[in-house]
Amino acid sequence: MPLVNFTTREITCKIVYYGPGRSGKTTNLQYIYGRVPEGRRGRMVSLATQSDRTLFFDFLPIDLGSISGFSTRFQLYTVPGQVYYNATRKLVLQGADGVVFVADSQARRYDDNLESLQNLQENLLAQGVDVRALPLVYQYNKQDLPRDLILSHVELDDALNFRSVKSFGADCLHGHGVFETLKGISELVLKRLAAGSPAA
Amino acid sequence: MTGLSPQLRFDGFVVGGANRLAATAARAVAESPGAGYNPLFIYAKPGLGKTHLLMAIGHAARAIDPALVVEYMTLDDFVEAYHTAVGAGQGETYRRRFVEAGLVLLDDVQFLTQRRETQAELIRLIDQMQSAGRQIVLTSDRPPSEIEALDERLLRRVGGGLVIDIAAPDYETRVAILRRKAEERGVVFASGVLEAIGALAIDNVRELLGALNRLVAFQAVSDAPLDAAQARLLLGVRGPAPDAPPMGLPAGGDGATPALAVPAAARGPQSEPAADEFGAFLSEVADTLTRQVEQWRRRTEEAILRWEGEGFRVDRLRALLAHELDSDPGAAIAGYERDVERLRELEREARGLSEDLAGSAVFRNPDDLTAAEAALAGAREGTAPPPAPEALWSLDDLVESEGNRLALRSARHVVESPTAETNPLVVIGGAGVGKTHLLHGLGNALLTRPGAVVACQGAQDFVAELIEAIERDRVGVFRNRYRRVTAFLLDDVQLIAGKERTQEELFLLFNHLHERGVQMAFTSSVPLKAMSGVEPRLISRLKGGLLVELPPPERVVCHAVTDRLLTARFGKADPELVSYLAGRPVESVRALQGLVQRVVAAADGHHVEPTAALAREVIEGVTSRPARPADAPRSSGVVAGTSGGSRSREKMVWDWPDAPERIAEEWR
Predict the structure, then answer these.
(1) Does B16 fall in a domain?
(2) The whole model's pTM is what?
(3) What is the model's pLDDT at position A82?
(4) CA proximity to A145, closest of A105, A113, A178
(5) Which of B48, B139, B243, B282 is the best residue to mutate to test the A interface, defined by the most A CB atoms within 10 Å of its own CB?
(6) Residue A75: beta bridge partners?
């Protein structure tokens, strides 16, 4: 549940970009970082390995200013996609208010997507999070690649999106679908504020 | 051979002026890997065919030499595979994989930016490939010199091969591509349609094909073939929003897919991201959040309406609104509702204890649970058992005589079959005649009834309890305590004389109990008609029941009592002693008990059995008395002292301590 501090009148939402390695999670954040005015974004922290893969996580804080009297902040995280960094993924996933599952649309990454999605569900369950209740959207990245190399939006929905949540086609390199995805997950997360007791 | 799409071959690649050089170089490399342009570096903007050309090289080379090992991968794959191998301690194995490859095709190397480790590995690979006469082909969306922070050594090695670009297709090439693709899909367009598309400023082949897809789809669902004007209208740059194709127009690539198989990025030049994406995002988030905050406010207002309507105080919820939701409204409402529920529980229990508490305001204020709990605690105390009769007294212990027969039988009648005529039972008698015994005996007998709650106490205790209740402002509790009894027995009722408040409470209690048919009994040492200081309304109610007198004990009673006392002490009783003691003139059983105790004490002091003679000595003060002459005058037992005056022998001390003991006692 998003952290609402009524005394200081602050709302903080933690959104985690999850998905297999090289699916474009960091690229999402980089694109967002490039579009957020300087005064509203914090320093993007990116901890990569020597071989340039995300080792720990990327973190991008965004200050949305005062909305309805509440100072609203979004914290965007990515997890390392590589299979062997599961401990880090679990750590980053803790307290997530919403998850964007960034799938690689390439047909040959089909199994990687499935494996990562199963890993997401396992990690959420291990943390006692009801997977069905957590806001989740899918982003099918790299839809700009040739049709022959990728699975279509519908095919990816069939393969991954069995909960029929919102899904977005994207080309994160060029920004297509990046903010649409962020809007989608933000709406779900913020709607939870009033869906039940905010402190529950 | 890995990762090559079977569709992307040279025969599907439309060659025009803009890509002729690149296509020619690619064919040359495919026909003679490692012989000419090594490495071959092809760069072009997205959607112009780099990947197509790269894979076509792989297919062609394999077609010529099926034994050739071809490795195709994107730079990301390259890095990932390397990273995995190094992580597993298999770095050398990974390198050998490329040594064995005759043709390495590496896509999207623009992502080498800032990746020094990867760049170093790539340099090593190029060196190996070149030295072994094997081919490596690289593609990028920009020339090597524009790849940020590219290692100089890598730049030199790439520059040593062939760097070639693919420009945007010209009109003719675009039309040729469109015709080829339409033909592949078996779609025939009206004359001028494909030309119309080709004339549009679409310099990206992928977008061009996306436009073709839309026309194919539109024509598939149209009754008449599409004409050029309609095609322009459909694809006009100023046409419909890129993310929202015309209603009913499938946007999928094959025309049969109902959803967006190809995202905005691949559907046309008009699908560029909006200029102020963050502004749009912020606006949307603000709308959503504002709605949520309003929802909190609405929930709070609904809670106020609901609970106020049910009579509960809602100050806490109003404060929440007044302070602009300065605390978590969900938690605050939940907390308030928990308190309301607690109040309801308290009230339910309190109502069971006392109807007076039902609907009390104290159970309508969730901000003061303490008061409600105190009220309930008070009610609970009010239901605490009132003083019960002393268990040691029983009706059966009372010896019936002619004088007390009426009183005893009345009491037994009350126990066995109470009637309105015996309620209240009022026992009048002097001090020590057995009124208290009778009352407690009656109480114990009544207690044997199922569910009986018998209050039995002296009037003094009753008064004291009321005073305490008044002091603690708990008169309600006091009343509740007595109003729930099944029998109310009050000893020495004459002691309430002059105590107006007690009389008031007793009057109210009497009425309440009488109305419920609860048995009451009172004792008094003063006849009712002689009782002063007690309100006539109370006396008249006492008179309304059954009045019985308990006279001083008769000889038979004294005999039985004495016999019982001595037997209890010594296991037997001397008949002469019993007869002597029972014959003493006493006004009460209590006085008789005093006599017996004195005789017993004297016997204990002399270590002898109590006898009638000893009793005479103790009581009358004579050791041996000559038999009284028959004609001698009768004495009252009071003898004249030698110093004048008179004294009662019964009050004389016969066993004085020795002088030294007395002195020591006085000096203590």
Answers:
(1) yes
(2) 0.41
(3) 78
(4) A105
(5) B282
(6) A14, A61
